[in-house]
Design a protein that fits this description.
The protein is α+β, with helices and mostly antiparallel strands. It has a single domain (2-254), classed as T-fold. The chain is built from 6 helices and 13 strands. The strands form 3 sheets. Strands 1-2-5-6-9-10-11-12 form an 8-stranded antiparallel sheet, covered by helices on one side. Strands 8-7-13 form a 3-stranded mixed sheet, with no helix packed on it. The longest helix is centred in the middle third of the chain and has 18 residues, at 95-112.
């Protein structure tokens, strides 16, 4: 069974394979995303993020969730040599981290409730576990960044996450903290496979900001693989991505 919702300004798809007697689990997942949006959206005046930026909320009064996100952001900034940052022009915006964090929390909710075969897609970033309704590994398509309706490669996973940073999706929301005027036009798309969606998403964002060197950074990350399409159309991938590349013809879910 699958259900859709529009939350956080993006389409969210949740699919659970197998028999489901009570579909309220979907409501719990969507409620999780709505709560994250209410708390972390920089566009909602009463969100914790907005109140911090307006100095209406003291840093010592932060929620446990905000403290967790800030700690993860600090760790990611350190791990990426500053190519990932939640501050831009003096404004706090953790959106580049929160999306993958929210998907990972949704996947954890499903796992903790005993679900073993599921697929969670939020705005093209995906967390999977187990197998689909046909008993096969989940199939995730990588879009052609120049023709987003076309799939250029299909990945198969039974656990983990896949995240893509691309000019057609959200490249305009990513910037190079080391060079403010960098237009980030060297890379058209960068897809990362990680042991979970949080790892894949945060490193895809940071690596995209690195330009063509991003794929080399992904190569250094333990349990991460990547597929990068440069602005000239040339594709490069990490040494271990082949283990995820499908040779079959079944239709994938587009990432």
């Amino acid at each position: 069974m699958r259900k859709h919702a529009l939350i956080m300004g993006m389409p969210i798809l949740v699919e659970i394979a197998g028999a489901i007697e009570d579909d309220a689990v979907f409501d719990r997942v969507f409620t999780l995303f709505r709560n994250v949006d209410e708390q972390f959206s920089p566009f909602k005046p009463q969100s914790e993020v907005a109140r911090l930026n307006l100095r209406e909320l003291d840093w010592d009064a932060l929620s446990p969730e905000m403290r967790e996100v800030l700690a993860l952001a600090s760790e990611t900034t350190r791990q990426t040599d500053g190519y990932f940052s939640v501050m831009h022009d003096g404004v706090f915006n953790p959106s580049g981290l929160v999306k993958g964090w929210a998907i990972h929390r949704a996947a954890s909710l499903l796992s903790n409730e005993g679900w073993r075969d599921f697929y969670v897609d939020a705005g093209g970033d995906v967390a999977v576990a187990g197998r689909n309704g046909e008993g096969e590994a989940w199939r995730i398509g990588i879009r052609n960044p120049f023709e987003p309706d076309r799939i250029v490669k299909v990945l198969t996973l039974t656990t983990g996450g896949v995240a893509t940073s691309a000019l057609y999706e959200r490249g305009r929301h990513i910037y190079n903290p080391h060079q403010a005027d960098d237009l980030l036009n060297q890379v058209a798309s960068l897809t990362v496979v990680g042991e979970n969606i949080f790892e894949a998403d945060r490193f895809a964002t940071a690596a995209f900001a690195m330009g063509r060197a991003g794929i080399d950074f992904i190569e250094t990350r333990t349990a991460c693989e990547g597929y990068q399409i440069n602005s000239d159309g040339r594709a490069v991938m990490t040494s271990g991505l082949g283990a995820y590349v499908s040779k079959g013809e079944a239709s994938p879910q587009p990432a």
